[in-house]
Amino acid sequence: MTPSTFIRWFDEINRSDVGDVGGKCASLGELTRMGIRVPPGFAITTAAYARYRETGRLPDEVRDELARAYAELERRCGPGNPVVAVRSSAIGEDAADASFAGQQETFLWRRGMEDVAAHVVRCWDSLFSPQAVAYRVNRVTSSETPQMSVAVQQMVDADVAGVLFTLSPATGDRSVIAINAAWGLGEGVVGGHITPDEYWVDKVSMRLKSRTVVDKPRQVKPDRANGGTANVDVPPEQRAQACLSDLEALELAQLGKVVEQHYGSPQDVEWAIAGGVLYVLQSRPETVWTQRQRSQTQTTTPSAVDFVLRTMGARPPSSSASS
Amino acid sequence: MSQRFPSPFDIDTPPGAEGWQEMYPRAWLFSEEMRSYEENKFWFYSGMHYPEPLPPLDLLVPEAGDIALGASNSRVFLTPAALGIDHRILNGYVYISGNAVSDPHHIERRADEFARRAGHYYSNWRELDRAWVNKIKATIADTQAIAVPSLPEVEPDAMVFAGASGTSVRLVEAWHRTVEAMHRGWQLHFEMMLLGYGAYMSFQQFCRGAFPEIEDQTVARMVAGLDSIIFRPDDELKRLAARAVELGLADLFIVPRQVNDLLDALNGTPAGQEWLADLEDAKEPWFNFSTGDGFYHSHASWVDDLSLPVTALRGYVERLTRGEDLSRPTATLRAERDRLTTEYRALLPSEADQTTFDSLLGLVRTVFPHVEEHKFYVEHWFNTVFRQKVREFGDLFVEHGFLRDRDDIFVLRNTEIADALIELISAWAAGGPTRGTVFWPAQAARRREILRTLRDWAPPPALGPLPDEIADPVLMMLWGITPERLREWTTPSDGHQLRGFAASPGVVEGVARVVRSVDAIDSLQSGEILVCQITAPSWAPIFPKISAAVSDIGGIMSHAAIVSREYGLPAVVGTGLATKIIKTGQRIRVDGNRGVVDILDSAATGPG
Question: What separation, in Å, do the N-terminal and C-terminal C-alpha atoms of chain A show?
């Protein structure tokens, strides 16, 4: 394969490449290189976007490289135009800021070189939506030239998908892994408009702590005719069924544990299962509890005896002397 | 306090048990004089330790025990907010209620004293524990050494010419010393035990603070000792089984026969004699092990009735001849304990937290062996020796026609025995007849009838007003009383699901075997799920046979919980009602992860 200027495959990327390929692609690269099953794909670098800004149209050299990469993706995925997701990959902003800054554009179930190229351009253009521009105008950093990378990734037609948190969303307990799962693509769970089944796993013993199965009348499925996705009915016999087996829940938890250990901090992980195969689509650091916990962490270390005495209602001599 | 359990004053005596109150001391009865106090207090059934109607003399244990427990909190260590416990008996069943300190100034003053005194124990634990073991062993030896002389036709020359105490004086003294030994033994029981639990609970609290959803059994597994002497009696059986196989005696064990026939057969061969010598070595002290929890005289100790250890031995010999490995998987358990500890430690958010975790775990692992081991020394060994001594008095009464059976002494109150002894000595001295030979046998027969009647009565789990909150960790730990448990007790069950403590992980479906008393253990078939009222550690030999355990009463540190974790069996303890709802032969599912037992069918093939 000839080296590309504008394309970086996920298996060539790691965390340190975040400046060229954005947070999302860097994370996908990192996961891929860890040996985790991530659907194959590539990043279109910030350099490509810079050329687009200069010329105002998709530059030929970028188009050529994109076409070559898409063909290579077909080689990797099997015959036929691969179906892909085209997503923006934010540069230098945290996730909340990125959505305002127009760096969270996502186009699902795209197929064929022309379709893909058109949606890459739409990702780029989203940086100049009125909302994104207004946002940047109000920022101190707005003088900087906006940058963007785009992820093009094979899309799996998920039977079941969702997110998992490597801590308890209820209490922040880090010995818990919480899995949300629903039929079809994960966008419904991520977007919050589908109530998922919930599985809680003990991270240390790797035992299922609880399983809450709910009625799931709707699911997100690919719109094969027009591209993109559609909300459709779940077949009646499937609605009340648990969408994960206990074994699958444990497999997911194990995966969450591995990812967390790799990053050294709690993660939230998007995942999908297609044809019985488990894929990771995304992993981000968990922020809510991680920040709260940081402020609560104890800084003094009482002796064990003092701790016990205090728990039993006593004021240990050493601490009453110092107070 | 919207909800109430029944008032103790609204509960009737079951027909046929009239007069049961005479079996117990005045202070243990609900009374009109104390009604306003007693009716407004929350009492719960102490079924974990006393699941059956209490024979009068067996009351000495909770009497001495509650004095020692109470004084330890209220007068010795000055536990800041907790005093002792009140106890009452209703229709033969024990109820208890905790007393607390509420005045904040009072609590504060006690807190300083507590820190000084308890701190001394925590800081010098190992040394004090060594001294403790010596003290309890000395108490056991002293109890054993109490001489219970028989009444001679004629006092011997030695007494006369030495001007020594007569037999009557020595008998009175012997009874008083026996009662005194009980108080001494049980004071030792509580010398360090509550502090040990306190340390454990502090560690548990730390873990819950860091991991709000951590399961109690996980904390227990990080702490539990793997070489605790509480496992030793069972280990001795395994060792003796291996020895029997080694000496070529396996066949003698495998053919079912009476214990005495087995012993005779063994005595007939040199190899058998060698094995019997080994058995004698193991007996002291390891067979001073109650077939129950050590709280009832009827739960014989191994040393007094070899049939239970011999039954277990037979099972072990069979398994050894099939080539099975009987050893406890201590290496696996140790590795698992280390893995748990390491992983939880790594999940703590700061180095300071990790340091506290390390030092707390270190302290708890130092003190917790005492919490596990005191049970062997006091509940099993000391209580066995105490009862052997009491039975010597029983023999004396039988010899003189005051009782028909030596164990009848246990249906008399302590003070009645003192009375009977005086009557007996008086008649011996007077040389005339006595009412005692008519009165006491009749009294014992009537008592046995009352106790039998009371066995069929179902004690309510609690009495009086439901407290707004139960936050006493000792009540939770020793008696399994939590707010959830109270809620379940007040909510009628639908009959298909029971909830309790998740005591040991795993999920198993199987056939239930309701075992109401230790005598019925033999009926248990391999692979069945044990459903019992109490969770008694000396049932250990049956744990290899069962696939799961369910109990009515017990907490996360109850013995069945500990032994189930040891054997890797799912267990749900403290369900309150399992033996009353589940029938032998029903298929049930025991979920030891969630603490739930489901009854899967209603078919029962055997007596419930």
Answer: 70
B604 has a pLDDT exceeding 70: no
Asked if A173's CB is within 8 angstroms of B594's CB, the reply is no
User: B30 touching A, CB under 8 A?
Assistant: no
Alpha carbons within 13 A on the beta-carbon side of B497? 7
What lies within 8 Å, CB to CB, of B154 at 6+ separation is: none
Which residues on B lie below 8 Å from A172 (Cβ)? Answer: 212
CB A151 within 8 A of CB A116: no
The gap between the terminal CA atoms of chain B, to the nearest Å, is 36
- According to DSSP, the β-strands at B596-599 and B587-591 are antiparallel
Q: Is A294 on the interface with B (CB under 8 A)?
A: yes
* Spatial distance between the Cα atoms of B481 and B488, rounded to a whole number of angstroms: 11
Q: CB distance from B384 to chain A under 8 Å? A: no
Cα distances (Å, whole numbers) of residue B83 to B68, B194, B360? 11, 12, 26
- Reduce the secondary structure of B45-65 to three states and give it as a string: ECCCCCCCCCCHHHHHHHHHH
| Chain A nearest CA to B72, separation (Å) | 14
Nearest CA in chain A to B505: A207
Supply the mean pLDDT for chain A.
86
How many whole angstroms separate alpha carbon B511 and alpha carbon B195? 40
What is the C-alpha to C-alpha distance for residues B561 and B404, in angstroms, rounded to an integer? 40
d(CA B59, CA B501): 28
B500 neighbors B575 (Cβ within 8 angstroms): yes
Residues of A in contact with B112 (CB under 8 A): 314-315, 317, 320
Q: Is the pLDDT of residue B578 over 70?
A: yes
Region of residue B16 (left: phi > 0; alpha: psi -120 to 50; beta: else): left
- How crowded is residue B185: how many other Cβ atoms within 10 Å of its Cβ? 27
Instruction: Kindly report the pTM of this predicted structure.
Output: 0.81
Find which of A292, A312, A319 to mutate to test the B interface (most B CBs within 10 Å of its CB): A312
Q: Which pLDDT tens digit goes with each residue over B494-541?
A: 668 888 888 888 899 999 999 876 667 778 888 999 998 776 655 767
The dihedral through the CA atoms of B295, B296, B301, B307 has a sign that is negative
Q: How many other C-beta atoms are found inside a 10 Å radius of the C-beta of residue A261? A: 12
Q: In whole angstroms, what is the distance from residue B390 CA to residue A264 CA?
A: 64
| pLDDT of A161 higher than 50 | yes
- The structure tokens 């060698």 sit at B274
What's the half-sphere exposure (Cβ side, CA atoms, 13 Å) at B515?
26
| A281 pLDDT tier (thresholds 50, 70, 90) | very high
What's the confidence (pLDDT) of residue A39?
Answer: 96
Task: Name the region of B122 (left: φ>0; alpha: ψ -120 to 50; beta: rest).
Answer: alpha
pLDDT score, position B607 = 40
pLDDT at B187 over 90: yes
Q: Is B355 on the interface with A (CB under 8 A)?
A: yes
pLDDT in tens, B386-434: 999 999 999 999 999 999 999 999 999 999 999 999 999 999 999 999 9
Residue B555 has, within 13 A of its CA and on its CB side, a CA count of 17
- Split at pLDDT 50, 70, 90, the class of B440 is very high
Which of A117-126, B222-231, B559-568 has the weakest average pLDDT? B559-568
CB contact under 8 A, A175 and B213: yes
List chain A residues with CB under 8 Å of B100: none
For residues A62 and A117, give the distance between their C-alpha atoms in angstroms, rounded to a whole number. Answer: 10
Q: B224-253 as b/e, with b when 16 or more CB fall inside 10 Å?
A: bbeebbbbbbbbbbbbbbebbeebebbebb
Backbone angles phi, psi at B434, to 5 degrees: -140, 150
User: Is residue B343 classed as helix, strand or coil in its secondary structure?
Assistant: helix
